[in-house]
Design a protein that fits this description.
about 120 residues; single chain; mainly alpha; about 0% strand
């Protein structure tokens, strides 16, 4: 089995994501540039969404997956969709987070994916 089949790239991307989000909170929150609640809620929203999507798809398309794993993968994807709707409702109606800080938190995942790919491509040379 390769390291990709164990889901390590997903965990590595999440590691980059956590480091980037916490680094932004530590550096920009004391300067009052970004609101920590908005940034962390955006990062948490995208992180949970990414993990549920990655593992749900992985369990569905795994070769020789039994019915239990396929059903669990489908349940994860349904839960991801419900989580997405519930979190968006909560963010839009109940939490008054700064929109720009939330957008920066969401963008942290995209930057983390790019950083992971650049890091991986440098290692493969």
């Amino acid at each position: 089995m390769s390291w990709e089949s164990h889901g390590l790239p997903v965990l590595r991307v999440e590691g980059w994501h956590v480091l980037l989000a916490l680094g932004l909170v530590v550096t920009l929150a004391p300067l009052n540039v970004l609101e920590p609640l908005g940034l962390l809620s955006g990062a948490l929203f995208m992180g949970v969404n990414f993990l549920l999507l990655a593992y749900g798809i992985r369990w569905i398309i795994t070769p020789f997956a039994n019915k239990g794993k396929v059903r669990a993968g489908i349940c994860l994807l349904v839960f991801k969709f419900l989580f997405l709707l519930g979190a968006l409702w909560l963010l839009l109606t109940q939490i008054s987070a700064d929109e720009i800080s939330f957008a920066v938190g969401v963008t942290c995942l995209i930057v983390a994916i790019l950083a992971d790919r650049l890091y991986d491509s440098q290692l493969s040379r």
